[in-house]
Amino acid sequence: MRIALAGNPNSGKTTLFNSLTGNNQHIGNWPGVTVEKKEGQLRTDKSITIIDLPGIYSLSPYSLEEVISRDYIVNENPDIVVNIVDGSNLERNLYLTTQLIETGVPVVIAINMMDVIAKNKDVIRSNQIAKMLNCPVVEITALKSQGFDELIEKSKELYAEKKKYRPVLWYSEPIEKMISKISEVIKEKVDSQKIRWFAIKVFERDEKVLEDLSINKADLETIFSEITEYEKELDDDSESLVTRERYAFISRFVDRVYIKNKIKAQNISSKIDKILTNKYLGLPIFVVIIFLVYYLSITTVGGIMTDFVNDVVFGSGGIPDLVRGLLESINTWPWLIGAIVDGAISGVGAVLGFLPQMFMLFLLLGILEESGYMARIAFILDRIFRRFGLSGKAFFPMLISTGCAVPGVMAARTIEEENNRKMMIMTTTFMPCGAKLPIIALIAGAMFRGSSIQWLIAPSAYLLGILMIIISSIILKKFKGFAGKAAPFIMELPDYHLPRVKGLAFLVYNKLKSFVKKAGTIILLASVIVWFLSSFSWSFVLLDSPETSILASIGKTIDFMFTPLGWGDWKATVATFTGLIAKENVVGTFGVLYGFAEVSESGAEIWSLLSVDFSPLSAYSFLVFNLICAPCFAAIGAIKREMGNRRWTFYAVGFQTLLAYVLALIIYRVGLIFTGIFNVWSIIGILALMILSYLIFRPNPYLKNFDN
Ligand code: GDP
Ligand code: MG
C-alpha cells in the first residue's frame, strides 16, 4: 500500500514523514526544501510505503513542485493521499484539498498543528469537515507524533473500502454544463474515476493536460470556442472562474468548522512584522542587519579570532615551524619538506585560518534563518523584484547560495516561469558563498587593514551580489528569451521564534564540516600541485623563488588578460584559475605562492606581502571579479543539470564571466580616475560604464507583454 503525503508548504509533511518512517529529511521553513519526492517505509509496518511530496498550494502546472506532486497523484495512482492541512490556516489549505479530492484518488485529511489550535483556544469541528468533503478527517500534531495511529487506521480502512469517487464541489451551472460536454469527449481516454478532474483541467485550458489527452482538433475547437464565449460573458478567464468558485465553496463552510477564539491578543509576530516588513523601513533595516552580520563576522569578532589562528597556530613557533623542525630532524629530502610545509600546510592553513570568521558568519546567518527573519526578506524584496518581472521567491535560491551555490542553483526550481528560473540559475551564484568568504576576508583584512573603509568591504560583497542579480534581471528582461512577468507570490510567513540551539548547531556544524573536508581533500591536493609547479623549473630544478617556475611561465603567458583590471600579475591569474576548482583555492594558492609558512617564521605580517602586487583598488577589482565570474566546477555542473543543455550552460558561464570582467574593469579604471590617473584605459572604462548603463536604462521593448 502506498500513501502519498500532499499539502501546502510548511504544513508539516516532512515532520510527519520523518516520524512515520524514522527518516531524517531536512525541515525548512521556506519553499524549495523538499523539491523532490521522498520515499520511506512506515516504521511499524514495512508493507506500507510513505511518499513525501513537495509542498504545493494548488494542482496547477506552473511550478516544478506542482508538476511533480500532480503527476504523482494523477498518473501513479497512490492508494491513499493523506492531505496534511495546517489547522491554523484552514481556509487556504482547504483550497488544495478540494483539488486533491477532485482527482478521484481516495483522500484522508490530516489536520495538523492541533497543538497550536489548542494553545490558541480555537476549535476545529473535524466531523463537519468530514461531512462537507465526504472523506475521513483525523486530527494530528506531527511535532509530537500525536494522532498517527488513527491516521494509519483510517487510511487502511479507506483503502479496504474501495469507495467510488463522488464529487463534493459543484460549480455553477454553466461550468458544470461545460464539464459534462468535455467529459463526453474525453471519456474514452481517461480512467473513469478521473474524468471529472480531466474535464475541469481542460476547461481551465491546462496545457499539460491538453497535451497529454491529445483531443482531436475539431472537438478541441468547439470546446474552446464555447469556453471563450463564456469567458467573454463573465469577463474573466476560465481558470480564474474555477478558482473563485473553489474559494467560494470553502468560505461558505469554513466559519462553521473553524471557530476562532475572539479574545486572543494580536500575536507578537504580526506586531514585529509591522516594523520589520514595513513598506519603507523593511529594506533599510535589512541592509543594516546584513551590514552588522558581515561586519561582526569578518571585521571584528571573527577577524580577531582569525588573527589569533593565523598568528599563534600558524605563526612563528606554530604548526609550520614544528613540522619543518620535525622533518629536518629526521633528515627528510628538502623537496618533501617543501611540498609538505610550503605546499600543503601553507595552502590548507591559509584557508583554514578563516574558519573562525566562517563560523561567525554561518552562526549569525543561521540565527536570522531560524528566527524566521530571512523568510520575510523575500516579501520585502518582492516589492522591488516585481517591478522588473521577478518575484520575491527568487530570494530563496539567493539565500541558499550564501552557503553554497550548488543547492542554490537547484533551489531555483521553485520559480514557476521557465525564463525566470533560467535567469536565477544564471545569477544566483553572484551571492558570496561560504567558499568565497576567505577571499573576502583576505582582501578586507590584508589590503584594507587600518583603512577607514575596511568595515565596508565585506558587507559590500553581499550587497553587490544582490545588486548584480537585480541589475542582471533588468538587463536580461529586455531580451526576448527572458521577457515576461512574475507569477503571484504567496507564501505564509512562519511565526518568529527564538532560534533553537540544536537546530542552529546542526546547521553551522554541517556547513563547517563540508568546508573542513574540502580543505583536507581538494584544497590540499591543489596546494601541493601548485607548490610543485611553482617550485620547479621546466628542467626540474628545485628553485628558491617561484619567479622562473613552470607555473610562473604559464601564468605569465596569460596574465595579460587581467592587466586591464589592474591585477595582471601571474600569481593572481593562477589563483583565479585554481579558484574554478574550488573558490577556497584562491586563498590557498596565495598561501603557497606568497609563502604563507615561510613568512610566518620571520614573524612578519603574513598577508602584507600582497601589497607588493596589489593596491587597494586593484585588490577590490580582483575581489569583485572572483565573486561574480564563473563559479566553481561543482556549481557549473549544477547549472548544467538544471539548464538541461550545454548551450544554456555556456550562455550562463559566459554571461557571468563577461559581467565580472566589465564590472572589475569599470571599478578599476574609473576608480583610478579619482586618484588622478587618466589615460586611454580610463576612456575604455567610461565607455564600458556607458554601455552597461544603456543596457540597464534603455526602454523595455517587451513592456507590452510585461503589463498584460
Ligand atoms: P513541510 O514544508 O510541509 O514539509 O513542513 P515541515 O515538516 O518542514 O514543517 C514546517 C514547520 O512546522 C516546522 O518548523 C515544523 O517544526 C513545524 N510543525 C510541523 N508540525 C507541527 C505541529 O504539529 N505543531 C507545531 N506547532 N509545529 C509543527
Ligand atoms: Mg518538506
Low-confidence region ranges: none
Q: Treating each run of at least 4 consecutive H or I residues as one helix, how many helices?
A: 33
Cofactors and ligands: guanosine-5'-diphosphate, magnesium ion
Walk across the major sheet and give the strand order.
2-3-1-4-5-7
Helix percentage range: 55-70%
Radius of gyration, whole Å: 30 Å
Give the integer mean of the pLDDT values.
88
Largest sheet: 6 strands, mixed
Quick description:
The chain is mainly α and 708 residues long. Helices cover 62% and strands 6% of the residues. The chain is built from 33 helices and 8 strands.
Topology:
Blueprint: E1 2-7, H1 13-21, E2 38-42, E3 45-52, H2 64-75, E4 80-86, H3 90-102, E5 107-112, H4 114-119, E6 123-124, H5 126-133, E7 137-139, H6 148-161, H7 173-186, H8 195-203, H9 207-213, H10 217-234, H11 238-257, E8 258-259, H12 268-276, H13 282-299, H14 301-313, H15 319-329, H16 334-352, H17 355-371, H18 373-387, H19 395-401, H20 405-411, H21 418-427, H22 437-447, H23 454-476, H24 501-535, H25 550-558, H26 570-578, H27 584-593, H28 596-602, H29 616-628, H30 633-643, H31 646-674, H32 680-697, H33 703-707
Parallel strand pairs: 1-3, 1-4, 4-5, 5-7
Antiparallel strand pairs: 2-3, 6-8
Helix pairs in contact: 3-11, 7-8, 7-10, 13-14, 13-17, 13-23, 14-17, 15-16, 16-24, 16-27, 17-24, 19-20, 20-30, 22-23, 22-29, 23-29, 24-27, 25-26, 26-27, 29-31, 30-31, 31-32
Bound molecules: guanosine-5'-diphosphate and magnesium ion.
Guanosine-5'-diphosphate (GDP) is lined by residues 7, 9-15, 27-29, 34, 55, 112-113, 115-116, 141-143.
